[in-house]
Amino acid sequence: MSEPRTIAPAEGKLGVLTVGLGAVATTLIAGVELTKRGSGLPFGSMTQMGTIRIGKRTDGDTRLIKDFVPLARLEDIVWGAWDVFPDDAYVAASRAGVLEQGKHIEAISDVLRDIRPMKAAFERKYARNLTGEHVKPGNKRDMLNAIRADINAFRDEKKVDRLVMIWCASTEIFIEPGPAHQSVETLEAAIDANDETVSPAMLYAYAAILEGVPFANGSPNLAVDTPVLRELSVKNNVPISGKDFKTGQTLMKTVLAPMVKARQLGVSGWYSTNILGNRDGEVLDAPENFKTKEESKLGVLEDILEPAKNPDLYGNIFHKVQINYYPPRGDNKEGWDNIDIFGWMGYEMQIKVNFLCRDSILAAPLALDLVLYSDLAQRAGLGGIQEWLSFYYKSPQVAPGLYPEHDLFIQLTKLKNTLRWMMGEDTITHLGREYYDEI
Question: CB atoms < 10 A from the CB of 350, how many?
Fold first, then answer.
């Protein structure tokens, strides 16, 4: 065993600021509040229901993660949000149509009605299919200053001891890192010049880091994954992670692709299409916004299958991803995958997957875990990129020069071993002496 890290206790209130008060955010808030009242169970949340093994298998020491690491209690969470619409969380949750009105929304209507969003930093050029009516006036500098003022006003008004910010809003247009994103000086100059390569997502991320608030990016937007914000997060000792919640189709890919690779089966084509009818689907109906999501979804197979290292198996793969906006489906996303594979002597086979999932039902527990783990990381003094949280993202953020790990089960091992390391317990591999003792 090693010495555990010094982790500040999770005392007092934890403020959670969501960028966006739509389907994902309201499902997250409602689920936590229902759990507090004993009216539901937080299925899908590792921090609340997951277990971790300590020591050898023969020790029989398996604990709930929430009993092993000092996480913030759900009872200590206080909510705040920004949104382009002025609706309180009750109206927003009702409009999203994810949860049952009578069974779940009405049961916590008092809490939901009390959560009123602050005006959002928003420019329609970044999400042209979204019309914002509850937005901050002024230029980018004005919006940055206003976000910082909101953070501090929320901290003072709600008397919270710590804060975490998580992006639960729409996908912005595709932006590549450029000159404006290299240093604090270039970023500051770009903000003053109203540079189009500085999006609202970057302003929120920059404001969070300046105010010492951990930031988790649940969208594929370019935000904390720029050189300037990555370096500033290390300097200010602020945890950051991203990007894009791993929920439906990509979740399946991070399970199926490692299986195909592990068995040395070839892949000639992987066709993926989605139908989605919520606000995210509407925003992604614009080609420039879909481009951002497409980049996030396409990178998974490339990184897992490594075609350059396995040319006979994956060197000629055709990978296609589509998202179709279909309003009647609402938040109930449907993902279709057709996978053309080949095996012994090149004989062809197929795998077909039809995943009828609920987008926000899958995303909400991920958001909760990211909030609690980000807060834990800050109390443990872990600033910068939290690669151990890759488990939750389609396009995990890693340090420069490293490729992201997409295999879901390798990600899970890394996450749990990080928790063991934090608490001074031995990490678990199959090569320790205890492995041979057991067999």
Answer: 10
Q: What is the pTM of this model?
A: 0.93
Residue with tokens 């960028």: 19
As given in the structure block, the two tokens for residue 330 are: 């609402």
Q: How far is 243 from 383, CA to CA, in rounded Å?
A: 17
d(CA 204, CA 223): 8
Answer whether 144's CB lies under 8 Å from 184's CB: no
The SS3 assignment for 261 reads helix
CA distance 115 to 113: 6
First to last CA, the chain: 22
CA-based radius of gyration for the chain? 22
Q: Which domains does the chain have, with CATH numbers?
A: 14-245+360-422 (3.40.50.720), 249-356 (3.30.360.10)
Walk along the chain (439 residues) in steps of 10 and give the mean pLDDT of each run.
Answer: 88 98 97 96 97 93 97 98 97 95 96 98 90 93 98 98 96 93 98 97 98 97 96 98 92 94 97 83 68 68 93 95 86 91 97 94 97 98 98 94 92 97 91 49
Q: What does the block give as tokens for 60?
A: 């029989």
User: 426: how many CB neighbours lie within 10 A of its CB?
Assistant: 15
